[in-house]
């Protein structure tokens, strides 16, 4: 359950005034954690793992949205 502990710790980190490289690192780390959790979920089918993955995905999307910048029309 080391991956679940890493994911929960990742969720609790502060994300204020990050540089672009920090945002890229956070996005990559979130993706890696989500993929690792997905491998566990395929075997165990535990809803708690799915909830963690959903929360990490929300964090990842938020960070990536900030990286891409505003949509210009």
Automatic annotation (TrEMBL):
It comes from the Bacteria. This is Uncharacterized protein. It comes from Algibacter mikhailovii. The lineage of its organism: Bacteria, Pseudomonadati, Bacteroidota, Flavobacteriia, Flavobacteriales.
